[in-house]
Design a protein that fits this description.
This protein has 13 helices and 11 strands. With 354 residues, it is of the alpha+beta class. The chain folds into 4 domains: 72 residues, Arc Repressor Mutant, subunit A, CATH 1.10.10.10; 53 residues, no CATH class; 85 residues, SH3 type barrels (Roll); 98 residues, no CATH class. A hairpin with a 4-residue loop joins β5 and β6. α2 crosses α3 and α12 runs antiparallel to α13. The two termini are 34 Å apart.
Length: 354
């Protein structure tokens, strides 16, 4: 249902753009053809947008009934004026929305800020340009997008909206080869500094995610697909990273007092719950996929974090610690096994992994 709602919002956004740009309005049939949906869907979208307060108006032109967006309604918004703090907030948001570059919204975002800047005096613009010196946002490490990435995003979004299959060549890190795929795109999303497409691969009968910057070539075909409502496009939410991962599991992690307050002030996952113990330790519980992203996150706290459950995650962390030690010091005969045995005695479960 979340996938369907996401596509519905983007389609309705495109409908607003079409009715705004059409000088004499567009008929329901014309809108349906442009958006690649049925007339019934357009009528439902128009009704929902009107109910939400958008000034969509119907006109009788000869024998046709057309729809248009009454732009005069927004005149009050333009004339109302914005406070200095509101102007600053909007201008500052530009840096926070840079991840939209390369999406269908890029041109609209750039155009909006160009018009915004034209409303400012040179002195005001200079003032706002100095804002990053006192108020800044440190972005996540950003993936290096290829030259074709922006056009790939636009075509993938269109394919998802119009339910069209896509043929592409893709550099798979897993196989270390450039492979050819035919995919059915469901969703384009941004996570951890990169853009991804969630798609079903008919040849494999399963859903996968693809990093858009690793797409070499992309061709939108004329073949249509029927979206499968059982496909869960929110699967990546199960992981602390961008992995589709498996089903979420109950995870319990204990943090030492020196790390506890820092962990307590953040939300790492929507399912998390926190318990502060009398000894100053913090116990965090959440339901997430047990994958590489989770292991890397736990290891990032070093000795200040210890996995209490599930036991196979604790075992995997222990094995990684042993492997990490080998990167810094040569193994000593019998020492690794001794240390592993000693550490496992302190774990709150048996040494046999599930």
């Amino acid at each position: 249902m979340k996938r369907a709602r996401g596509q519905e919002v983007i389609r309705q956004w495109k409908l607003l753009k079409e009715t705004e740009a059409a000088r004499y309005g567009l008929t329901v049939e014309q809108l349906a053809e442009r958006l690649g949906v049925t007339s019934r869907t357009i009528r439902r979208d128009l009704a929902q947008l009107q109910e939400a307060g958008f000034p969509l108006e119907q006109h009788q032109r000869d024998t046709r009934r057309t729809w248009s967006l009454n732009r005069e309604t927004f005149k009050g918004l333009v004339d109302s004026g914005l406070t200095l703090s509101e102007l600053c907030a909007l201008y500052f948001s530009r840096a926070l929305m840079e991840f939209l570059a390369g999406t269908p919204f890029r041109q609209d975002l750039a155009s909006a800020f160009e018009k915004f800047e034209q409303c400012l005096t040179p002195a005001q613009l200079k003032y706002l340009e100095d804002f990053p010196k006192v108020l800044a946002a440190k972005p996540e490490p950003r993936k290096k997008a290829g030259v074709e990435a922006p056009s790939h995003v636009g075509r993938l979004t269109t394919a998802a909206l119009e339910h069209r299959r896509v043929s592409m060549t893709y550099h798979s890190f897993h196989s270390r080869k450039v492979k050819t795929y035919v995919i059915e795109p469901y969703q384009v999303y941004y996570a951890q500094g990169g853009l991804y497409v969630f798609a079903v691969v008919p040849a494999y009968g399963e859903a996968r995610q693809f990093a858009i910057e690793r797409i070499k070539t992309l061709h939108m075909t004329d073949e249509r697909f029927v979206p499968d409502d059982t496909v869960d496009v929110t699967r990546h939410a199960n992981s602390l990273g961008v992995n589709l991962g498996g089903k979420p599991e109950a995870v319990t992690i204990e943090f030492q007092p020196e790390a506890a307050p820092y962990v307590a002030e953040r939300e790492y996952h929507a399912s998390q719950s926190l318990q502060m113990r009398d000894d100053g330790c913090l116990v965090l519980k959440m339901r997430v996929a047990v994958d590489f992203a989770l292991s890397a996150w736990v290891l990032g706290f070093g000795a200040r974090a210890r996995v209490l459950a599930p036991r196979r995650l604790a075992q995997a962390i222990l094995e990684q610690i042993e492997d990490m030690r080998g990167n810094y010091a040569p193994p000593l005969p019998g020492l690794a096994a001794t240390r592993r045995a000693k550490a496992q005695k302190d774990l709150p479960f048996t040494t046999k992994a599930r």
